[in-house]
Write a structure and sequence with these properties.
The chain is mainly alpha-helical and 202 residues long. It contains ten helices and no strands. The longest helix is centred in the N-terminal third of the chain and has 27 residues.
């Protein structure tokens, strides 16, 4: 590995270190209490060094969200390659999102409920981002179900909205309701997915 490659590798590793520390601070301190100074103290570097990589907390939050959506998009495409049945593909994709939220509630809250770094959905679909890519892949999976005649003729955007709202509802209950039986959350998630998909099928 040459000098340039080593430097690039170091920069990427340090950038990831910043992101991991920022994610932890966002979760523990909250968006409003987050500061670049606290982040600098956490990783034992100067804030000036961090500013070489990220210009502010919104830039950090955007990068954290993009990292999640990049991983989610990769997973969606893996599911599509394995499954030949479009409805089963949608089921597995939907379950992946719900299981992530149930297992990582505070990270899910950070990504989806902290602040919209993408703007409205209309703005999202116009801007190049991993969030946009993920949304379009998810929408394509829904459209595959419609085109195969396995789902009622409804706008794909509407079905995506239904599934996302249901996912947010269950995960929000898991986060905020102390008496929610977390050991049953996986069963509830699977049942909710099955009920919704049966209702949307012809």
């Amino acid at each position: 590995m040459g000098v340039k490659e080593k430097r690039a590798k170091y920069r990427e590793e340090f950038r990831q270190e910043i992101l991991d520390a920022a994610r932890e601070l966002f979760i523990t301190e909250g968006y409003e209490n987050f500061s670049m100074r606290k982040l600098a103290e956490k990783i034992d570097y100067s804030a000036t060094t961090i500013y070489l990589y990220f210009k502010n907390r919104d830039d950090l939050l955007f990068a954290i969200c993009e990292e999640f959506f990049g991983n989610f998009s990769t997973r969606l495409n893996q599911i599509r390659l394995v499954s030949r049945d479009p409805v089963e593909t949608l089921r597995q994709a939907f379950l992946y999102l719900m299981n992530f939220g149930l297992k990582n509630p505070y990270q899910y809250k950070l990504i989806f409920f902290t602040k919209s770094v993408y703007g409205s959905r209309e703005e999202l679909v116009k801007k190049e981002s991993m969030a946009r890519t993920t949304y379009l892949v998810f929408k394509e999976i829904v459209q595959d179900c419609i085109d195969a005649g396995q789902m009622r003729q409804t706008e794909a955007d509407v079905i995506v909205d239904i599934l996302v709202v249901a996912s947010h509802g269950l995960i929000t209950k898991n986060i905020y309701c102390a008496n929610f039986l977390k050991e049953r959350s996986g069963t509830v998630a699977r049942t909710l997915v099955d009920v919704l998909l049966r209702g949307l099928q012809k």
